[in-house]
Design goal:
22% of the residues lie in helices and 39% in strands. A hairpin with a 5-residue loop joins strand 3 and strand 4. 25% of the residues are buried. The protein starts with 5 loop residues before the first strand and ends with a strand. It is an alpha+beta fold. An 8-stranded antiparallel beta sheet has the order 1-6-8-7-3-4-2-5, covered by helices on one side.
């Protein structure tokens, strides 16, 4: 699948997240309980929709933040904390289709940055569009912060 990559300046976006330092091997088993905790916090505040899921990777350790874009104030409980997606210059693409194919979108951004001689900071994130049972209607925004 072809992924068009563009450079944009983005504003910070507030998030509610659970943060963790983990390993790439452990992360696949951790992200869903982390996200479930954020949604439990939102539902307790009577927020049931309108907050897109996000995963922010701060480095390759990885130090990660899993949660949602926060579109309205919400009391945060438990391990859920306030954070934000970073502001600044990013290389980005939008992936349409199965989450299992997200790696190709990340590879496309990395390759494009190398071709364009753009340095990445190591910080990157994914913002997920609304769920749909049809994988062709699923989209994910992928951003890599540029130096």
């Amino acid at each position: 699948m072809k992924h068009a990559v563009t450079v944009r300046n983005v504003e910070a976006r507030p998030t509610a997240v659970v943060a963790a330092t983990t390993t790439w091997r452990e992360f696949p088993a951790l992200w869903k309980p982390m996200l479930d905790e954020v949604w439990a916090c939102l539902r307790a505040a009577d927020i049931h929709r309108g907050c897109r899921n996000v995963m922010l990777y701060l480095d390759d350790t990885p130090r990660v933040e899993v949660g949602v874009e926060l579109t309205q104030p919400c009391p945060l409980t438990g391990n859920v904390v306030s954070s934000s997606l970073p502001a600044g210059r990013v290389a980005m693409t939008v992936h349409y289709g199965s989450y299992a194919e997200l790696g190709a979108a990340h590879d496309a951004v990395i390759a494009w940055c190398a071709k364009e001689n753009l340095s990445r900071t190591g910080v990157r994130w994914e913002v997920y569009g609304p769920h749909d049972d049809d994988p062709a209607k699923v989209w994910t925004e992928i951003c890599y912060q540029l130096s």
